Recover the amino acids of this structure.
């Protein structure tokens, strides 16, 4: 793992353990700041973007009733004691049946204190 990926992984693990990183600047301040309890009131989601040799992206068809038949990237919730990489690998294996390895973090999305989604570029391994 290169140094940038190592730093990223360490920072994510620090945050997910309930510790914080120093924020030196920000664009705006929320009107009302509400405390959240990490891993108790926030849902962490991982998602993988995986391309094949034809530059086609891997999508899975949903089976849940509320979104049955829709196509999405393989994604799901992190379990309590999983690392972010383990969660990504488990979700891709469960939903698409392939083993993967993350390459880099593409995006972090959040919905207030409800959920945080980590979207990774990953590659099939094996």
């Amino acid at each position: 793992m290169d140094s940038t990926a190592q730093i990223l992984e360490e920072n994510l693990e620090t945050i997910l353990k309930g510790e914080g990183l120093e924020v030196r600047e920000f664009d705006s301040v929320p009107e009302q700041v509400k405390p959240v309890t990490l891993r108790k009131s926030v849902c962490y989601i991982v998602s993988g973007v995986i391309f094949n040799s034809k530059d086609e992206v891997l999508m899975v068809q949903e089976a849940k009733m509320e979104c049955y038949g829709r196509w999405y990237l393989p994604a799901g919730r992190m379990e309590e004691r999983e690392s972010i990489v383990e969660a990504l690998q488990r979700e891709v294996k469960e939903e698409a049946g392939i083993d993967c390895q993350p390459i880099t973090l593409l995006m972090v999305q959040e919905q207030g204190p409800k959920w945080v989604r980590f979207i990774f570029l990953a590659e099939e391994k094996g």
About this structure: The longest strand covers residues 100-111.
